[in-house]
Structures are given as structure tokens and as C-alpha cells.
Amino acid sequence: MTKLSVNVNKIATLRNSRGGNVPNLVKTVIDIEGFGAEGITIHPRPDERHIRYQDARDLKQVVSTEYNIEGNPIKKFIDLVLEVKPTQVTLVPDAIDAITSNAGWDTIKHKDFLIEVISEFKRNNIRTSIFVDPVSKIVEAAANTGTDRIELYTEDYAKKYEEGNQSGIQSYIEAAKIAEKVGLGINAGHDLNLDNVQFFKENIPNLLEVSIGHALISESLYLGLENLIQLYLSKLK
Ligand SMILES: CC(=O)[C@@H](O)[C@H](O)COP(=O)(O)O
Ligand SMILES: NCC(=O)COP(=O)(O)O
To answer: Which residue, 75, 70, 190, is CA-closest to 130?
Structure first.
């Protein structure tokens, strides 16, 4: 069973674009869970361009499924996560000016740092996951950090799948086998969508969770527009 965790960064992006509180992030999250999602993911960035640190606190009051907070473990982020105490923290090595996450951890080079941060979260009973590329030696070394899980960075898979190249899954299959061997749980995310998620799941049977945001929110616009246009037309008759 693979859990679907909905990343709601883009709901916050839309809200922030106008000021005010439309769409209402808290209400949207309650509804997303009501519609069956099994988790909520947020990725507060230091400039708070979408999720604000206060959103992370507000959502803690309403999330009733798995609450996953992703981000680069700078001090401000670590303090926030220790205060909010989500179900899971996912550590991502984001550059400060990154438009979106674009690389996984080097678990060999940053082993000592990761051990230190992960042990602090685990002392506080927060499950940990680290964002990694599907590279055998990186996944193997992830086990030395003490993390509970890895999140496989799926942009490369998604890009190749869109080009019709299904062999992009191979490195993920290898990575998943190694993760299982060294006792790590497996999550996945980035650019997963309605077209590519099933093939990924079918090939990674021990996949515990996917977090999906950008495509899912975009798809919800496309899938909702026809209905909504009819509703507006009926008001304007
Ligand atoms: C780690 C990851 O792949 C996602 O959290 C992604 O980076 C979403 O962040 P943005 O919504 O800021 O692009
Ligand atoms: N961890 C990945 C995530 O939360 C969502 O990434 P994306 O679907 O917005 O690319």
C-alpha cells in the first residue's frame, strides 16, 4: 500500500499571489484529507514564497493524516520542525535560491551533518526521510545516517517517462532493492503525475509514500474547469 501525500505548496502560492486568504489553505487541507488523501506535505522555503512558517503551525492543528514537512535543515527550519512535531521530516539539500528542489543529498560527504540532524529529530519522535538520487552508493550510505526512510528524487524518471523512455525506471528499481537490503523505507516524489505514477508504483513494490504537488494541483485545475465554467454560465444566463 502506497500512501498519497498531497503537497499543498501551490495552494499557498495561489493565496500569496493576491494577499488575503483565498484559497484558504487550512480549509483546502481539511477537504483534501476528506477526499481521501493519506498525507499532507509542505515544503516551507526560507523566503516563505509559498508555505509560510505560520502555515506549518496552523496546519498542525488540523492535519489528521500523516503530516510531512520537507526542507533544508537550516537552524530556522530545524526549530520549526521541533516545535510543530510532524509525523515525518524530509531533509532536502536545497540551494537558498533554488526555484524548486533539484538534487538529492550526497550521503557520503554529508554523513556527519546528517547523523547530527537526524538524531535530533528522532530524539523528538519525528520520523526522518532524506531526499536522494537513485544512485546505489548514495542509497547504501543513507543507512549510515540513521534515517528511517529515503525519498527517491523522481524528476529524472518523470522526464524520461514523458519522452516515452520507460527504462528510466531501472536506476530506481536498483535503488529500491538496496534500500530494502539496508533496512530503509522508501518514499518518492518530484514531478510525479497522473500519467507516470502507476508505472512507478508497479515497479517499486515496497514504495511507502509518494508526495505529489505541482502536477496534482495543475491537474485539479484542468479536471475542474469544465464543471466550473458550466456553473458560471448558469449564473450569467
Ligand atoms: C523535495 C521535492 O521534490 C518537493 O518538495 C519539491 O521541491 C516541491 O517544492 P516547490 O513546491 O517549492 O517546488
Ligand atoms: N517531495 C515531493 C513533493 O512534495 C512534491 O513535488 P512536486 O510534485 O511538486 O514536484
So the answer is: 70
Question: pTM of the full predicted structure?
Answer: 0.97
- Each residue's pLDDT tens digit, 52-93: 999 999 999 999 999 999 999 999 999 999 999 999 999 999
How many CB atoms sit inside 10 A of residue 28's CB? 18
Among 43, 66, 151, 209, the one annotated catalytic: 43
What is the interface pTM, i.e. ipTM, of the complex? 0.97
Q: How far is CA 182 from the centre of its chain?
A: 22
CB neighbourhood size of 49 (10 A): 13
Is the pLDDT score of 125 beyond 90? yes
Query: Domain limits of the chain?
Result: 3-236
Q: CATH number of the domain at 3-236, please?
A: 3.20.20.70
Q: Determine contact, residues 59/25, Cβ cutoff 8 Å.
A: yes
Tell me whether residue 213 is annotated as binding.
yes
If you measure from the C-alpha of residue 151 to the centroid of ligand 1, how many angstroms do you get, rounded to a whole number? 12
Task: Please state, in angstroms and as integers, the Cα–Cα distance from residue 21 to each residue in 14, 15, 42, 50, 51, following that order.
Answer: 10, 6, 17, 13, 13
41 lines ligand 2 (CB under 6 A): yes
What would the mean pLDDT of 150-158 be, rounded to a whole number? 98
187 is in an annotated binding site: no
Q: Considering 66, 151, 190, 209, which one is annotated as catalytic?
A: 190
What does residue 119 show for φ and ψ, rounded to 5 degrees? Answer: -65, -35
